[in-house]
Write a structure and sequence with these properties.
The structure is a homodimer of 569-residue chains. Chain A is of the alpha/beta class and 569 residues long. In chain A, strands 1-3-2-8-10-9-14-15-13-11-12 form an eleven-stranded mixed β-sheet, with helices on both faces. In chain A, strands 4-5 form a two-stranded antiparallel ribbon. Chain A has a two-stranded antiparallel sheet with strand order 6-7. The N terminus of chain A is likely disordered. In chain A, helix 8 packs parallel to helix 9, helix 10 runs antiparallel to helix 18 and helix 13 runs antiparallel to helix 15. In chain A, strand 6 and strand 7 form a beta hairpin. The longest helix of chain A has 23 residues. Chain A is 38% helix and 12% strand. The first copy, chain A, has one domain: Amidase signature (AS) enzymes (Alpha-Beta Complex). At the A-B interface, helix 15 of A face helix 15 of B. Chains A, B: Its EC number is 3.5.1.4. Chains A, B: It catalyses: a monocarboxylic acid amide + H2O = a monocarboxylate + NH4(+). Chains A, B: Belongs to the amidase family.
């Protein structure tokens, strides 16, 4: 990034905002910080002494435990919100994961919910009292929505995003907003205002992006349920890198209206909102309840497509019995690192043990799909960023490396300055449609090889060719982007963690591409130690119900295998 | 259009194709043509003597009569196909509505269906034996698909469009392809190859476009069910001008994959395929059976959204009782001609007589919506047309006027040569989303004024500010385009016909706009005599089921009123 002069006004705006943010943190929730050399901070919320035993019990609970206790009143919304708020503030001190903090507003909302339950004996909705964290771009009336752009500081939302209106109807308690990269179009999390979010499992590694604040926060159990957005992997990369569950729904299943965003008006490969949580059930609770709220009556782009209990019962997938999964071992361009291969092997073993069939997935033109997707974004992205940053002159960030020597020596996710014409964009989008048609035919024809009579029920794919890499090193979102262009519903499931004992570096293989060699060179088991290993479960377009059910089957199978291996529950 | 030199090669290609087309017409099906001064040709299929009494009975039958007789075998697929084919060829001789004619192929298909029914006792599918006409852009393997572009002559489809595969699965008999304007982006029907399609009710008037061949063909009962496409009114304008029923479904409900098209890759305001027929039941039979065939397994853009019997039963509309309709009398830019106002008044009277409430619809920013939609198309349209026509140098048609003096003195639907950048297109598309959001909120807030507790159940809108105008005079698709940008499901229903006795010209009013004055000046009851009067029933995005049911309610109400008025069934 170009070194900006200290006298430029944007730095002053940043400083002022950082002070305002600090002032929103209750001083009594400040903890004694560990040494910066302490890389794994996941146990600190439990050991720092800020949370009571009851608050620890609450924050250790997943959505499936929280919701019935909140509904019965055995845990009040105020105490649940307070517990998660405290833990979120701890998480923020450890990983820098929050942007907007508004304790009083959230607690007032929680108190009103408690009052409602007490007075009427009824919950407001299926998410009654559940604290929900939101990626910074999701608007809450009265709360600033800078999205990491200095030029957007001072923009207080004049109304809620549609999703926030829906969440309020459902009884949820929006309670924090979370960190993002400038522009959102980067798979790490760093911006001029709020700085960098680190990975709680190993703070020398990235939390991923663009929903990196959510990933770090939920991994530290500072929120039971968060909402991110995903245009190339932005829900799934942080979920995978931080070891939590994340769902990328298909275009327009979850209402996006009223959010701030990059590249607005880009109507071809759409960003989608999706949940991040500590369990598959958490993802389902969000998805089902939001859809059942009929968001199409509030957002014209939200698809009028009801939640289908039949599809969740897998009526199109043999009711979940004797399924056939196919594993994408590599995309023929980049061989994943040893821990990622181990994650796929574990999943395969678990699924076979659970009575399913597992075959290999044959990739189809992944390289062209990546290039086509990048071309759609690049069509107008540079101009979009230039226009957005121009009011303050803040630099467009061109590297996420913390090493100042790297500045200017590398480029990755930033498109070139020159956009293309609308007609040229149409040609790219036409090719995109053809690739989607080819991939559908490719999937359908697997019916001949599965042995079930059906095409493959779901693909098991790496979430990236690596576990969370060091800050500044995440430059390849290929394994997530592919499913964005194809608009396949995709869930991330954590499988294990990098262990230098198991996950040794292998001798060099014959490289499939330049990026394969770069990727090979990146791996060092010690550097990646303790980073979560995750996989993607990939279903069809608009198969949210089925992917939630299939993801549960995969998750249960992996857990059962692990229980069997260790003899413990 | 620029007068092309006779020596240019494209004219030779046209001549050769016209001869090939003529050769596909069985000579025994040629009729004695009426004088060109015979304007209303709707009775000629019945009087020309080519059809037997049984063939007349068959071709007078709507889809709801044909399907059970075909399924029971009381009418064979071969005799039904033969009857409609003969009548289609008559229609073609009267209005020039066909492009591709393939009698042997269609009859072979019909014979195979008969054999199947005879052998197995079962129908192939719900459309067993039904002849279906297809707009020229819908590909049938082995059939030429020029779409009116000289440069595309000789392009024989190497595979079926997805819709054709689906129709074959359903048991239908694709049997003719129908005429279109060059580029498809014009609301009349004329191209260099196949010439002009006229309106069978008054051949001095246009059939509308771009699915004008379908409109004329179905009005003459030369096909029981046709498929057109609609990006700005191209199903609805010919349906309205020709006095038949047409449905514009929402984006991607009906599979579009594998068709040829203009402006491919324009992903923002999508063209959709929709049915045209002589009854609401015909539209429903098509829509329901195509959706029930799960087209999303063949076309990745087709939405995975099942046919909903509950939504067809109007569970979101008080089960069809005591509905509230709102009439759009004018868009605040163009006051419709007297017969169109009469059509709206008749509909209002009929709905009130049927026990429903009728209020006025308040238009919201229609002018800006029209401009925004045109800007999306114009972004790359001129370059698209230039690239497509360049191989042969055929001129891009810039007027549909049959008067050569008009050439070069007017411009309407053709965008300017200069396209815009992808970034500029994104800004237009962003504004489009905002307008959709505003319109949804505008519709939702009618809940306060309907008296039903619900928002307006459907809008009743003109299909155009006029009935079918003289050739070359249809330059304003505003009343249909609006629903394309908003992506509202919309059905056209015929109400009456222009009668110079009733539909007198009114004194000039205070004009709302320049186009209002131009429209006022256009009206002359004698010129428009006998042109059908139609309305649109407008529902929400992806409300195909509900609009089919609401359209039936409107149609039944209008028919009941007419029965009451005339004392006849």
């Amino acid at each position: 990034m170009a070194a900006p002069g200290n006298s430029a006004p944007w730095q002053a705006l940043v400083k002022e905002k950082q002070e305002r943010q600090k002032a929103t943190i209750p001083p009594k929730w400040l903890i004694e910080l560990p040494d910066t050399r302490t890389l794994d901070v996941t146990s600190i919320p439990e050991t720092c002494g800020l949370l009571s035993a009851r608050e620890l019990e609450i924050t250790r609970s997943n959505v499936e435990v929280l919701l019935p206790r909140l509904a019965s009143g055995s845990w009040s919304a105020v105490e649940v919100t307070t517990a998660f708020y405290k833990r979120a503030i701890i998480a923020h001190q450890l990983t820098n994961c929050l942007t907007e903090i508004f304790v009083d507003k959230a607690l007032a909302r929680a108190a009103a919910l408690d009052e409602h339950l007490k007075t009427t004996g009824k919950v407001v909705g299926p998410l009654h009292g559940l604290p929900v964290s939101l990626k910074d771009q999701i608007n809450i009336e009265g709360i600033e929505a800078s999205m990491g752009y200095v030029s957007w500081l001072g923009k207080y939302a004049t109304k809620n995003s549609v999703l926030v209106d829906v969440l309020l109807e459902l009884g949820a308690v929006p309670f924090v907003k979370t960190n993002i990269p400038q522009t959102l179009m980067w798979p790490e999390t760093f911006n001029h205002i709020f700085g960098r979010t680190s990975n709680p499992h190993n703070r020398s590694l990235t939390s991923g992006g663009s929903s990196g604040g959510e990933g770090a926060l939920i991994a530290l159990r500072g929120s039971p349920l968060g909402v991110g957005s995903d245009i190339g992997g932005s829900v799934r990369i942080p979920s995978a890198f931080c070891g939590v569950y994340g769902l990328r729904p298909s275009y327009n299943r979850i209402p996006y209206g009223g959010c701030v965003n990059s590249m607005e008006g880009q109507d071809s490969v759409l960003s989608v909102l999706g949940p991040i949580s500590n369990s598959v059930v958490g993802l389902k609770a969000f998805t089902q309840s939001v859809i059942e709220a009929q968001p199409w009556l509030k957002d014209p782009l939200a698809l009028r497509k009801r939640w289908s209990p039949e599809e969740y019962d897998l009526i199109e997938h043999n009711n979940g019995k004797n399924l056939c999964f196919a594993i994408l071992w590599n995309d023929r361009l980049t061989v994943p690192h040893p821990p990622i291969i181990r994650g796929l092997e574990t999943t395969k073993k678990a699924l076979i043990a659970a009575g399913h069939t597992v075959i290999d997935w044959v990739p189809h033109k992944h390289g062209e799909i990546y290039e086509t997707l990048r071309a759609v974004w690049a069509a107008g992205a540079a101009e979009d960023y230039a226009v957005t940053t121009s009011p303050t002159g803040e630099p467009v960030i061109s590297t996420m490396s913390p090493d100042p020597d790297v500045a200017g020596t590398e480029a990755s996710f930033r498109p070139g300055k020159a956009g293309i014409s609308a007609y040229q964009l149409w040609q790219t989008q036409k090719r995109k449609r053809e690739l989607r048609e080819e991939y559908l035919a490719h999937w359908q024809q697997t019916a001949g090889t599965t042995g079930t009579g059906r095409p493959v029920d779901a693909i098991i794919s790496p979430a990236a060719a690596y576990a969370a890499p060091p800050h500044g090193k995440n430059k390849n979102a290929d394994y997530t982007m592919i499913w964005n262009l194809l608009d396949y519903t995709t869930m991330v499931i954590p499988i294990s963690k990098v262990d230098p004992t198991f996950d040794v570096k292998k001798p060099a293989h014959e490289f499939l591409s330049d990026r394969d060699q770069i990727n090979y060179d990146l791996y060092d088991p010690v550097v990646f130690a303790n980073a979560p290993i995750s996989i993607q479960v990939v279903g069809r377009t608009l198969e949210e119900e089925a992917v939630l059910a299939l993801g549960k089957i995969v998750d249960d199978a992996v857990k059962a295998l692990s229980t069997k291996a260790t003899g413990k529950m």
